[in-house]
Design brief:
Layout: H1 2-14, H2 20-33, H3 36-48, H4 50-58, H5 60-66, E1 77-81, E2 86-91, H6 100-103, H7 108-111, H8 113-121, H9 123-129, E3 139-144, E4 150-154, H10 166-170, H11 175-179
Parallel strand pairs: 1-4, 2-3
Length: 197
């Protein structure tokens, strides 16, 4: 795949259809200014700031915008909070509607027909495929993203993170946990965290 991408980029550059510097700028934007890092910062803020978490639940657009994130494909956001008894998952059954400003480009599997059709029929099976086993007493709710509304899942804050800074907490948040097909990273795998009292 990498060879094909490079060959296509070379051909398009030689024909004058693309400017490599502009392409590098777009890639840099999605790697450093748009994407899952932004969503992770939103989640971490909600974990440490109860007022922000309430605002996020009631007006996700405004709360997310207050952190400087927004734009095309990020309009009409709704935040879904994972709880002890309900697990949320997001899909776009029609195409691939996805909140780019907070999650970046959608992963290939999110756009695939098997995911889009199976998640609504067998959410527990899809979760198992992603390595997530939920207790039987936790209900799963699947939300269908559209051009009019997009979702950001707020995973539960992992135990053992008391005293962690917002920046440290953001490292635990994964793209998959903000779609609902994954969980935050295990805090015990980070040995470089300094806890503040």
């Amino acid at each position: 795949m990498d060879v094909r991408v490079r060959a296509l980029e070379t051909l398009l550059t030689e024909k004058g259809y693309i400017d490599p510097a502009a392409l590098d700028e777009v890639i840099d934007a999605y790697q450093t200014r748009i994407g899952p890092r932004n969503g992770a910062r939103v989640v971490a803020r909600a974990w440490v700031d109860p007022d922000f978490a309430t605002w996020l639940r009631t007006d996700a657009n405004a709360a997310i915008a207050s952190l400087g994130y927004g734009g095309r494909q990020g309009e009409h956001m709704v935040a879904l909070e994972q709880t002890d008894d309900t697990h949320h998952m997001v899909v776009c059954t029609l195409c691939s509607c996805y909140p780019w400003p907070v999650l970046g480009l959608p992963p290939t599997w999110y756009k695939s027909a098997p995911y889009r059709s199976r998640v609504v029929r067998d959410p527990h099976g899809v979760l198992a495929d992603f390595g997530v086993a939920l207790p039987d007493d936790i209900g799963v709710r699947v939300w269908d993203s559209t051009a009019e509304i997009r979702y950001l899942v707020i995973p539960q804050r992992p135990a053992g993170t008391d005293g962690w800074s917002e920046e440290q907490l953001a490292r635990l948040v994964t793209r998959d946990s903000m779609i609902g097909v994954g969980l935050p990273l295990d805090p015990s795998t980070f040995d470089d965290v300094e806890v503040t009292a």
